[in-house]
Amino acid sequence: MSTEIDTVILFRPVGSKELELIENTGFKKFPPRLFHQPIFYPVLNQEYAEKIARDWNTKDEASGYAGFVTRFRVRRDYLSKYPVKTVGARDVHEEYWIPSEDMELFNDSLVGPIEVICEFRPE
Q: Per the confidence metrics, is the pTM higher than 0.90?
């Protein structure tokens, strides 16, 4: 009998303020959404996350003009209740839409730490 948990690897582009909040949890949780953020959207591939971090976060004052890509694992059984949304190029711009009220359950479904794998600054 295997004790390995079936997980999905996801990515999340974040700015410097969100990264600081993640760091404050010991890289174990994502922060709650703000009142104007009804969904949390982890993405399915690194390329898409890098594009957002590089092209959007580095131009955004609220992101501290910096973009970071995080990588993390989530229990597959938890994610199975959410459909994958394609928001741009097929098979490239795919993400999950997690309602803000589900963030605590989402964080409880993380397996292992949240890792920072890329960093982008304005040119």
A: yes
